């Protein structure tokens, strides 16, 4: 493809992208493809000769598009959103055109310094207390792993990096039963062993019980083990429950434990002054992560990771082969030493575009709209006798199920709600996901899509009610 053709096709693609986003409601949110269908439509061998771009694009529309789940569809209510916005997409296009690999300051000074500045902005936007250094990671999962590795190396004085585990460390770690699976994954990858993770009981609101945390820490100390780190969650994946950060932080302080706070989804809410209280106690946190790629209009991937002890982080990861040495030495930040991968994408650009395009106040007003839609939907759910909420709404996630009068058997209720979810998703008009809360199959509906409206949410609710009635049990 020569640059003239590139120019022509890029203009066409820009139009296509704007049309796509404008007309996205015509697509089924969730594709109606069978496993293997797309694979079967793709030739087994790569082309020997180059193909024309129009031909490639025609296949994108014919083969790929029908197999896409439309995450930017306003009726995407599943999981947590991975929402996006036009300025973010434009930045991503530029990022691809620049094609910069931003591992070191020297490999793109602007990328490093822009990252430093936007991370400072983000810290201020969410009101992080005290002094933190920020770095963009690809995901919250990676950030949590980085945090636990830093805790490990700080506690072992870089001994495990040097010699590996001796078998005498006997570290233990703590998170609630509702903490995200990435915590357990990080514990496994960091070599602690899954059995060293204590899953602490939650209360009626699915938030960690601090007394149970302290009891577990003491029991481990008495057993001769070495409590190392606690992970608190602001906004659990199941129900956006908020762990009590201050009492957990106080326990960490009392016992000398590392404290990581995973606010992957809910951290964005702290941009709102009315939700700043979520951060109460964060001055105790050693590390904190939230994902602008979930709810802050910045397309995947972009995870904001903050660390108090920058030196402990860098000492854990730095490695300096001859071919990476640059004359600036320690005078600059080399973000390759702040995480796992050497190579790094230029992710700061999209954050910069998003924050500048909307302004903090513009982002706030979108978040408030999302929260208000959830509040209205909650009223609708409460008004029905055959539906019930299964967890308190802390932000814009609704956890509920259909519960017809007289049907109280848990397994039948679970089957009914599973059928209901499948029926809703099969229509392609809305996409919800589920979890289990205390064994109850729970429908999860999040109103966090960038352009979701109250009408979209009410239409989804009507659909749910109608299908529940259609199942003969609503
Ligand atoms: N932590 C929480 C609370 C989450 O809800 C999620 C994903 O939904 C994650 C961590 C993992 O996020 P990521 O996909 O960025 O690794």
What is the secondary structure topology, with strand pairs?
Layout: H1 3-22, H2 37-41, H3 53-64, H4 86-98, H5 109-125, E1 133-137, H6 140-155, H7 159-163, E2 171-176, H8 181-189, E3 197-200, H9 210-222, E4 226-233, H10 245-255, E5 258-262, E6 287-290, H11 292-295, E7 303-307, H12 310-317, H13 348-383, E8 387-389, E9 397-402, H14 410-427, E10 433-437, E11 440-446, H15 454-470
Parallel strand pairs: 2-3, 2-4, 4-5, 5-6
Antiparallel strand pairs: 1-7, 6-7, 8-9, 9-11, 10-11
Helix pairs in contact: 4-13, 5-13, 6-8, 6-12, 9-10, 13-15, 14-15
The structure holds pyridoxal-5'-phosphate.
Pyridoxal-5'-phosphate is lined by residues 80, 139-141, 180, 182, 233, 235-237, 262, 264-265, 291, 303.
Describe the 3D structure.
- With 474 residues, the chain is α/β, with parallel strands linked by helices.
- It has a domain at 100-345: Aspartate Aminotransferase, domain 2, CATH 3.40.640.
- The protein contains 15 helices and 11 strands.
- Strands 1-7-6-5-4-2-3 form a 7-stranded mixed β-sheet, with helices on both faces. The protein has a 4-stranded antiparallel β-sheet with strand order 8-9-11-10, with helices on one face.
- It is globular, with a radius of gyration of 24 Å.
- Pyridoxal-5'-phosphate binds at residues 80, 139-141, 180, 182, 233, 235-237, 262, 264-265, 291, 303.
